[in-house]
Design brief:
Rossmann fold; 9-stranded mixed beta sheet; 14 helices
């Protein structure tokens, strides 16, 4: 008779909605345990937690730029969910999170399941040199500029560690791989870990037949526990549904495949770019720090999200006026051509 691996039994029980025996035993609560709440030891734990929380706020790190950092404390024990439609800048924002931390000598882990490692490093290098990453992707960047960017890779990679879509046969698309990567930095000297992006973690080694929703839900539940004992904040990028559901104001219903991640996140931000004005709005839908509903507008320049200064606003106005003049001249030219 073939032996059954205990891990298989555990997986089957969990699939059917049952916990392991140890998990079931942990559910027992005695009257004595309840009565101990409020005693010297339990109050000491509460005071310690308050002290840890105050220390955590003091340890806040840079989140993209000064305006966003001031509005959104970027600290450990928190899960930051950043949502955007396809093509609206998820990977660009990831580079903007990594960039200032690299400049400050802080380590970041990027778990990427769409972009290769060279593109991630190239994005950050372009931010440092004020170059346009899209020029590189479209073959418009001169060779000498590409060399200057590539020369930054050794310095960037000292602090920005990348597991990309090609790592270990797609480890970053498998829920077990993502969990193991995050476990590796849970107590390490990293300042941030990012998953770019959520919906592409859609496979399970232990449950090869699991549907994408179930895999994502498994990751969501695990992350909720993980952040409580982690020294690093987690940033997850999520894709929103296509055009058909864009008019729905409830963000959780617009998150593709795994909307329940909204419940687990402590801060949820929707990024809304305005390509004509070269600005982006960061709309806070959920925030344990009390800024839900706040909209933070940033300028977008050479791939970076910058403070929306009066000078930048004037440039927007000047570009619009220039466009109106050019359109008017073009229209008048077409009218004159029709006369002849």
């Amino acid at each position: 008779m073939a032996k059954i691996d205990p891990r298989e039994v555990d997986a089957i029980l969990k699939q059917g909605g049952y916990g392991t025996q140890s998990e079931i035993d942990e559910m027992d609560i005695s009257l004595d345990e309840l009565d101990k709440f409020g005693d010297r030891n339990s109050l000491s734990e509460i005071y310690t937690d308050i002290s840890k929380y105050n220390q955590m706020l003091k340890e806040r790190i840079t989140f993209c730029n000064d305006d966003l950092t001031e509005a959104i404390p970027f600290t450990r024990e928190n899960l930051y969910l950043i949502c955007a439609y396809s093509g609206n800048g998820k990977s660009t924002i990831a580079a903007n999170v990594s960039f200032p931390l690299w400049k400050q000598g802080k380590k970041t882990l990027v778990i990427a399941n769409e972009e290769p490692k060279q593109d991630i490093l190239f994005r950050i290098g372009c931010l440092e040199l004020g170059l346009n990453f899209n020029d590189y992707k479209k073959g418009r960047m001169p060779a000498e500029q590409q060399v200057k960017v590539a020369q930054l890779f050794p310095e960037i990679s000292r602090h920005v560690k990348i597991l990309d879509v090609n790592y270990k046969s797609g480890l970053t698309t498998k829920v077990e791989g993502v969990k193991n990567a995050l476990k590796a930095v849970q107590s390490a000297d990293y300042s941030c870990a990012m998953i770019d992006y959520y919906q592409l973690v859609k496979y399970s080694v232990e449950r090869p037949n699991a549907k994408t929703y179930d895999v994502l839900n498994d990751l969501r539940i695990w992350l909720g526990r993980y952040i409580k004992n982690s020294k690093v904040p987690i940033v997850i990028f999520a894709q929103l549904h296509s055009l058909g559901k864009r008019n729905n104001k409830d963000l959780d219903s617009r998150i593709k495949d795994g909307p329940t991640i909204y419940e687990t996140a402590t801060v949820v931000i929707e990024v809304i770019p305005n390509f004509d004005d070269r600005t982006s709005d960061f709309l806070i839908h959920k925030d344990r720090f009390g800024l839900s509903g706040t909209r933070i507008s940033c300028g977008f320049q050479n791939g970076r999200y910058i403070k929306l200064t009066d000078e930048f606003k004037q440039k927007i106005t000047d570009r619009k006026l220039d466009k109106i003049v050019k359109d008017s001249e073009k229209h008048q030219s077409e009218v004159n051509d029709d006369k002849y």
